[in-house]
Specification:
678 residues, nine-stranded mixed beta sheet, Endonuclease, Chain A, 22 strands, alpha/beta
């Protein structure tokens, strides 16, 4: 597997590493465990109070006027790699005041190199840049992404950091063993916001595999470009995470000198000497990955891409096919630089009512050992308590033509800080010291945590599903239905609602351990009448999958396997969306699984639009027909996989396309692995 796929595992502790991990655990126990820093200062900052006067805000007004939009917020489906990458490039180039990026993972590869060089260039022209990144995938080459924090006009914070070594993913996991429960809970949100006027939400992380450029496997994904007032709600969510005690400035976790040491160590292993470049634009000819493997100090963000490219180049240089491999890497980088920014002025937005569903940061318990010292904002700057307001109040906007009221929308409103005597339980990972005969009121942090557990993004979607009357169409790459999800499906089927689910097959799943939690529920779901489809892994057969076309979409020729992606590579489903009754569309970072429901933080856009729902639904229907196995029960109660139309594949009675070791893994772990850890 490529670094981009290995560095973002679903399971924190891969089984193949268990012997090493147990040995390392013994060393860690004997030698002590690393701790997170204390007395961390977090200067408070918030999104733009007004977007008036920015080019993007003006463009939104012009696009709405041209379309005679009834509603103030507009939406564009970004269904293909070109649109997904080009829209981000366009936002960076158009930004005049602020850029806010929030991601679970930013990988070290060519796609990120170009994108982050553009971000650095924006910062140098005066744009304030804030980057919030979950800390789990910041080891090895990917650790160099943190160099962004040392660029002028760029702030970078790591959410829920993992103490310990960043030398490799393996040692990162070892460091996490001392706090296994907390490290399992990750910030999974994905946002890309410019000038608080336009923003992108969806399932993509940043990396080659998410933009059709990985030579081994690419994700089929879907984003939404949002414009208008709804972006302010996305920004409020970002601010609530950015100013939270769980977000640590990079400088409190690692120094530039330590990053240099990590890079030097990697370079010594690779035995590759690089020449820095100052260019923030593509060279006249596609450069060799060897000569561009390290980024310049002044554009240090691209160092993350360098390490990956040089490692791959070195690995292939000693093989008979070295020239071919290097040529492929050179061609890959050339394709990245050939990508053009999306023409925002020609974007065909669909104007519709919408709300933001977002989990509270406190869904992840705070580190009890570290004290925090947030700094007061500058005079005239709103405090985070003022800036972070409830999104839930906007739920009524969905009521006029859609019988979905009331729909719970996870709020980003901070928890109340007044102790309540009636609440006495303590969340996991915290403690309340008892006093003789007098129950202790919970702390503010405990109250925040307890409130955060009441409702989540997935819970909100389940409440929404309770109101479905005709059809539920669900795309979830990691699908692990716990008791509540299964009950929601059963209730829908009892109302004669058609329920269809598209997920990964074992062969197309980049996290096969997650497939275990799905496989054990297949027969139960099929018996209640749920229709199951599993995406097959051949990219050539899914070039049209989830590539919506026409107004309100940037799909068509941008679909995976059409332009810009590697046609011979493996395809892996990564889109996360729910369509209800052909009129309500939810797109976001969430999977329909217990990890998204109970552990990770998530965000989604819930849009009421028959137009967008129809177009997204049409693309899914195409994927179900042409790119997915239809799983059924045979006459004896066994499973059978019906081959996709026109695929020249045969029906199967066991996991199609999966290797014997993978099938054995499924068989052995099926009875053992708990759903909430998958």
């Amino acid at each position: 597997m490529t670094p981009a796929l290995v560095s973002a595992p679903r399971s924190v502790l891969p089984l193949r590493h268990l012997p090493v991990l147990w040995a390392a655990l013994l060393v860690a126990v004997l030698g002590g465990c690393a701790e997170l820093p204390k007395n961390v200062q977090r200067p408070v900052s918030t999104a733009l109070e007004t977007t008036a006067g920015t080019a993007l805000a003006t463009q939104v007004q012009e696009r709405r006027a041209a379309a005679s939009g009834r509603f103030e917020s507009g939406f564009l489906l970004l269904s293909g790699p070109q649109a997904a990458y080009g829209s981000r490039l366009a936002l960076v180039e158009a930004a005049q005041k602020t850029l806010d990026l929030q991601y679970y993972a930013i990988h070290a590869d060519a796609s990120t190199e170009r994108l982050l060089r553009s971000v650095v260039a924006a910062a140098r022209r005066g744009v304030r840049v804030r980057v919030l990144l979950d800390d789990f995938n910041t080891s090895g080459a990917d650790a160099q992404v943190m160099r962004l924090a040392f660029e002028p006009n760029i702030e970078m914070r790591m959410f829920n950091p993992v103490a310990g070594s960043r030398d490799s993913s393996l040692w990162r996991m070892v460091s996490a063993l001392s706090d296994f429960s907390r490290v399992q809970q990750r910030m999974h949100n994905k946002l890309f916001i410019a000038d608080n006027a336009m923003g992108i939400a969806g399932g993509r992380n940043l990396g080659d595999a998410y933009f059709g450029h990985d030579t081994s496997g690419n994700f089929v994904d879907l984003d939404v470009l949002a414009a208008g007032p709804i972006v302010k709600d996305l920004s409020r969510s970002f601010d609530s995470y950015w100013n939270n005690e769980r977000a640590y400035p990079v400088q409190s976790l690692i120094t530039r000198k330590e990053l240099d040491a990590l890079r030097a160590s990697a370079a010594s292993v690779e035995e590759v000497e690089e020449t820095p470049t100052e260019s923030s634009s593509p060279p006249e000819a596609a450069p060799s990955p060897v000569t561009t493997a390290s980024a310049s100090a002044s554009a240090s963000a691209s160092a993350s891409a360098s390490a990956s490219a040089s490692a791959t180049a070195t690995a292939t240089a000693s093989t008979p096919n070295a020239t071919t491999a290097l040529d492929a890497l050179e061609a890959q980088r050339s394709r990245v630089w050939d990508r053009k920014p999306l023409n925002l002025a020609a974007a065909r937005f669909v104007w519709a009512p919408a709300v933001v569903l977002v989990d509270k940061p406190a869904k992840i318990p705070a580190d009890s050992a570290a004290t925090t010292e947030p700094l007061a904002p500058q005079p005239g700057t709103p405090s985070p308590r003022d800036a972070v307001t409830a999104v839930a109040g906007q739920r009524n906007a969905l009521a006029p033509a859609a019988p979905v009221h009331p729909v719970h929308v996870a709020s980003v409103t901070p928890a109340p800080k007044t102790p309540t005597a009636s609440i006495t339980a303590s969340p996991v990972g915290t403690s309340t010291a008892p006093t003789s005969g007098t129950p202790q009121a919970p702390s503010a942090a405990e109250l925040e945590y307890l409130e955060s557990q009441e409702d989540t993004v997935v819970d909100g979607l389940l409440q929404l599903m309770d109101q479905a009357r005709r059809d539920l169409l669900i795309v979830s790459p990691y699908f692990v239905p716990g008791p509540e999800i299964t009950a929601a499906f059963a209730a829908a089927r009892a109302r004669n609602v058609r329920v269809r689910v598209l997920t990964n097959s074992l062969a197309s799943n980049d996290a096969p351990i997650a497939h275990v939690g799905y496989a054990r529920h297949r027969k139960t779901l099929l018996a209640m009448g749920v229709e199951l489809y599993e995406m097959h892994s051949e990219a050539t057969g899914v070039r049209k999958a989830l590539s919506a076309t026409g107004s309100g979409s940037s799909g068509g020729s941008d679909g995976i396997g059409a332009t810009g992606s590697t046609g011979s590579s493996r395809a892996m489903l990564h889109s996360k969306l729910v369509i209800m009754d052909h009129r309500l569309l939810a797109v976001g970072s969430m999977n329909l699984d217990m990890r998204s429901q109970k552990q990770n933080t998530e965000i989604a856009l819930l849009i009421r639009s028959m137009d967008l729902s129809r177009r997204a639904g049409a693309s899914i229907e195409l994927a179900l027909r042409d790119a997915a196995w239809h799983v059924e029960l045979d006459a004896r109660g066994g499973l059978v996989w019906r081959a996709p139309q026109g695929s020249n594949l045969q029906d199967a009675t066991s996991e199609p396309g999966a290797s014997v070791p993978l099938q054995l893994l499924l068989l052995l772990l099926g009875p053992l692995a708990p759903d909430h850890l998958l």
